[in-house]
Amino acid sequence: MTSILEFDEDVEMFRSVVSRFNAEVVAPQVEKMDEEEHIDPSIISALFETGLMAVETPEEYGGAGASFTAAVAIVEELAKCDPSVSVLNDVHNTLVNTCVRKWGSDYIKETYLPQLSTDKLGAFALSEPSAGSDAFALRTRARKMSDGDFVIEGGKMWITNGAEAEIFVVFANAEPEKGYRGITAFVVEKSWGVKVVKKEKKLGIRASSTAVLAFDEVRVPKQNVLGIYGQGYKIAIECLNEGRIGIAAQMTGLAQGAFDRAVSYVFNDRQQFGKYVGEFQGMQFQIAQIASEIEAARLLLYNAARIKEAGGEFVKEAAMAKLIGSQVAEKTASKAVEWMGGVGFTRDETVEKFYRDAKIGAIYEGTSNIQLQTIARLIQKQYTLR
Ligand SMILES: Cc1cc2nc3c(=O)[nH]c(=O)nc-3n(C[C@H](O)[C@H](O)[C@H](O)COP(=O)(O)OP(=O)(O)OC[C@H]3O[C@@H](n4cnc5c(N)ncnc54)[C@H](O)[C@@H]3O)c2cc1C
């Protein structure tokens, strides 16, 4: 048997493309983008031009027709350099492209996949002020008009890529009296009237936009209903189950990025008491512990990806990968700051940013409590005899 961490040629090819992309395109801008809380538009264009924004999209729609594992490997690799660029790519690929590819009619696929492959950024708009962990408490309404078209009225919050996106997957309730069974998903173009009301100022992933959106009587043609009318809740659940593997990848990459920087520093750059600080056993044991935990997070990540790719039940494994990935990222980035001493605490060093960026892993696409709830529910189901 070979290691689960050995990948096919396609995946390795994407990894080396992203590694070069990080060094040449992303790294020179990371600090500036974090300070300015803004993603440089040239990075978004370069992601499209390099073929990283339509990984699983079939070639007939302008995509690479590659695997889910390739998509998450790209997210992991980008996060080693900048978790903000990583989540931009992740939301576009694993949420938006996936929703359109899996649930879109021929019309929707033919209209939007080529745009999402070439230059139009996507966003996934589910959360609202009143609907976070309880996502189906959403209050945005879709009113059906006499000609069959819809008018969307309401507001969304916390939308990643919200400031730059031109194509939105939007969840709105068309029949509130039916509860969550009234929730319907739509593909909405920004030019139809989606307004960016505010960009949040955040602790971490500051270059990634997180927007409040307003839908003020936005008219959406009936052919832009995504999937079956009234089954938007299913699309949201299925998409987020899969998307969690993407966040696990972002967190694993972040941990590796922080580890790489700090470990190189302790073995090459800093001496105390006449030795490189990495040579003290007190440091070596910590480094060994963290290296083992990153390996564990990566194994959970690619185990979940492999089960999903094979068409198996992966919900528990995806929740575990995200839960542990976010914990390992936080711990690794914290240790990396400590290992670099005062230097690690300054904004001149990337580990300070990784430490701030790590916190989001325990919050979005389901908080850690929600992951634990999912894991516990599935364990209970497995062990209950009655
Ligand atoms: C930077 C950022 C980007 C985001 N991007 C997107 C996006 O692109 N699209 C989108 O739709 N949403 C997005 N979100 C929203 C994100 O998914 C929610 O923030 C998340 O689901 C948590 O919801 P909440 O913030 O309302 O927290 P709440 O649901 O209010 O949770 C508060 C606390 O209560 C706990 N809690 C809640 N319910 C339970 C329960 N049943 N059992 C135990 N504990 C519970 C939570 O674990 C948490 O600790 C983003 C959020 C952020 C911060």
Could you give the topology of this structure?
Elements: H1 9-26, H2 30-36, H3 41-49, H4 68-81, H5 83-103, H6 106-118, E1 122-125, E2 141-144, E3 150-160, E4 167-173, E5 183-189, E6 194-199, E7 210-220, E8 225-226, H7 232-268, E9 271-272, E10 275-276, H8 281-309, H9 315-339, H10 341-344, H11 350-358, H12 368-383
Parallel strand pairs: 1-4
Antiparallel strand pairs: 2-3, 3-7, 4-5, 5-8, 6-7, 9-10
Helix pairs in contact: 1-4, 4-5, 4-7, 5-6, 5-7, 7-8, 7-9, 7-11, 8-9, 9-11, 9-12
Residues 91, 124-127, 132-133, 158-160, 202, 210, 360, 363-367, 369-370, 373 line the site of flavin-adenine dinucleotide (FAD).
Pathway: Amino-acid degradation; L-isoleucine degradation; Lipid metabolism; mitochondrial fatty acid beta-oxidation
Cofactor: FAD
Domain Acyl-CoA oxidase/dehydrogenase middle: 123-218
What is the overall pLDDT average?
Answer: 97
What is the count of β-strands? 10
What strand line-up does the widest sheet have?
1-4-5-8
Q: What count of domains describes the coordinates?
A: 3
Beta-strand residue fraction: 5-15%
> Class by helix and strand content?
alpha+beta
What is the helical fraction, as a range of percent?
A: 40-55%
SSE ordering: HHHHHHEEEEEEEEHEEHHHHH
Number of helices: 12
Describe, in short, the structure shown.
Belongs to the acyl-CoA dehydrogenase family. The protein is α+β, with helices and mostly antiparallel strands and 386 residues long.
How would you sum up this structure, described in words?
There is one protein chain. The longest helix has 37 residues, at 232-268. The protein has helices at 9-26, 30-36, 41-49, 68-81, 83-103, 106-118, 232-268, 281-309, 315-339, 341-344, 350-358, 368-383, and strands at residues 122-125, 141-144, 150-160, 167-173, 183-189, 194-199, 210-220, 225-226, 271-272, 275-276. By secondary structure, the protein is an alpha+beta fold. The protein has three domains: 9-120, Acyl-CoA dehydrogenase/oxidase, N-terminal domain (Butyryl-Coa Dehydrogenase, subunit A, domain 1), CATH 1.10.540.10; 123-230, Butyryl-CoA Dehydrogenase, subunit A, domain 2; 234-383, Butyryl-CoA Dehydrogenase, subunit A, domain 3. α4 packs across α7 (232-268) and α8 runs antiparallel to α9. The chain binds flavin-adenine dinucleotide. Residues 91, 124-127, 132-133, 158-160, 202, 210, 360, 363-367, 369-370, 373 line the site of flavin-adenine dinucleotide.
